[in-house]
Amino acid sequence: MMRGRSDGAQKKRLLTSVAVVAIFVVVLYFYFGSKSNGESALEYGSRSLRKLGSSYLGGDDDSDLSSKQDEKFGLEDGEDGIVSKSFPVCDDRHSELIPCLDRHLIYQMRLKLDLTLMEHYERHCPLPERRFNCLIPPPAGYKVPIKWPRSRDEVWKANIPHTHLAHEKSDQNWMVVKGEKIIFPGGGTHFHYGADKYIALIANMLKFPNNNLNNGGRIRTVFDVGCGVASFGGYLLSSDIIAMSLAPNDVHQNQIQFALERGIPAYLGVLGTKRLPYPSRSFEFAHCSRCRIDWLQRDGILLLELDRVLRPGGYFAYSSPEAYAQDEEDLRIWKQMSTLVERMCWKIAEKKNQTVIWVKPLNNDCYMGRPAGTQPPLCQSNDDPDAVWGVNMEACITPYSDYDHKVGGSGLAPWPARLSTPPPRLADFGYSSEMFEKDVELWQRRVEHYWNILSSKISSDTLRNIMDMKANLGSFAAGLKDKDVWVMNVVPKDGPNTLKIVYDRGLIGTTHDWCEAFSTYPRTYDLLHAWNIFSDIEKKGCSGEDLLLEIDRIVRPSGFVIFRDKQHVIDFVKKYLSPLHWEAVADPTPDQDQEGDEIVFIIQKKLWLTSESIRDTE
User: Fold this and answer.
1) Average pLDDT value over all residues in the chain
2) What are the phi and psi torsion angles at 425 (to 5°)?
3) Where are the transmembrane segments (predicted)?
4) How far is it, in rounded angstroms, from Cα 564 to Cα 561?
């Protein structure tokens, strides 16, 4: 009997031990995640896979940079313990992660935000301990996106598996689900029967020739606020007009994702408490079609922000019930709004049916002629209207520069001559026309060199959405003028604020800090151009590995990244090709212009799926 009890106890202890070991193995599996075989794992804040950077795309500007100036991302220390053998794959539920616009992060951090001011839709980046050190997986059944121009009208449903807008906006022709595709008939909340007809109507109201809104090339850059799925901007492209379509990651949370999947320029943002990431006098035309914005709040601060980014003589087309309805509340709003814009020196250019179009003054005469104490006031003379990154909006009118006041407008050439004509604001940077022209020629040669390297990998319709991560004067984008692409020109916040030159050339872009994540969905750009970006963030002490992960998040599967940087940076990137599932398009090549020690290295991102995605597809 004793022996029997002893054998039973031993068996019990053995089973317990086996169970403990099994649990330990399972914990290790979920902790270290999958390797390149596509198994899914999620890692919150672990430092076990890296030693290269202390932050997840959120560098500390006050850190001791002197000790990191020569760090070179740790390459001189050798590979051991520095470069991870693989990156885990984020859980499938994070396939649409936008790190600095993550509502779950806001809830977890218990940030005290004013919802009435839209602060919860503004950028809030994760702290180091909340970073995602993993690769963002594509959704189940992901396919290489449909090519432009077909993509304007249809996308693969599997790439953005969200159909709630099709049901919610079924009576407005935003989008329709049809088999494996989502179709975009071109409708909107205010233009059910098509953006093309609506655009022609606006041009007719302004008596532009041939009902063409570009007005002989005088209107080139447009700002569409509360853009929906960006059909308004999409239909402007055929008129040689490029729109910055803006919407927040709100209840219609995938609208900007749809816009970019369609190949239409768009950006995640909101009119909240911070200035828009665009310089003053960037747009000839602004548009709001039932954008649900309270323009009267906080002394009209949002309308004044719109005024800041409009050029002299710029238009604001407003299609909303307040412009035509006769009920008491709409009449009250219309009366107050009319009074506000009159004090801002705006005038009605035309009002017809359900749309009103205001126009800004061409010079400062009206501002100077207002009675003393008129509200809103003019901004202080020491206010920089082009300082935008993290800068709070102000309820004041931005007067024109002496040059703009004198010439009575922006002094810009019409499109397309505008692209290659030295803009007046070049003088703000001490650049001459000769310097500008040399920059244009230099980047034209460089673009041709890039395309020669890519020639075996791309055809005329392979690329559509392109990002220049350090745009300078926008000459990289200008070098692509004959290709059917558009470029998001990004000007880093710490360098020369040349974004106004980009806009003055008829291009679009935004300001950004590359120590943080960009405001876009995963898999939204076909090609990224990274010119000295890694050398720049290295000087700030930010993590090169984090930036590689962010680039991988942004670029589409089968997309490309062009690195132009120092040799040690290229060596650094090459060590991560396998962990990131990238492959070199060609061997690194020295700068053909021999103007420095820059090396060109182009990679292609492989298309991969997690095992869970494959099972879901099957």
Assistant:
1) 86
2) -75, 0
3) 12-32
4) 10
Q: What is the pLDDT of residues 162-186, one digit of tens each?
A: 887 766 665 566 788 999 999 998 7
Other CB atoms within a 10 A radius of the CB of residue 597 amount to 11
d(CA 333, CA 227): 22
Amino acid at 300: G
The pTM of the full predicted model, rounded to 2 decimals, is 0.87
How does residue 1 score in pLDDT terms, banded at 50, 70 and 90?
very low
In this structure, are strands 599-605 and 589-590 parallel, antiparallel, or unpaired? antiparallel
Asked if 562 and 449 count as a contact pair (C-beta separation under 8 A), the reply is no
Single-letter code of the amino acid located at 373? G
Residue 390 to residue 151: CA distance in whole angstroms: 34
User: In this structure, are strands 555-565 and 525-531 parallel, antiparallel, or unpaired?
Assistant: parallel
Contact 10, 581 (CB under 8 A): no
pLDDT digits (tens, 9 = 90+) for 381-400: 999 999 999 999 999 999 99
| Other Cβ atoms within 10 Å of 29 Cβ, number | 12
Q: What are phi and psi of 165, to 5 degrees?
A: -65, -30
User: What are the tokens at 475?
Assistant: 């000459």
Q: Which amino acid is at 173?
A: N
DSSP annotation of 427: G
pLDDT, tens digit (0-9, with 9 covering 90-100), for 121-153: 999 999 877 778 899 999 999 999 999 999 999
CB 408, CB 210: distance < 8 Å: no
Closest CA to 419 of 365, 480, 366, 344: 480
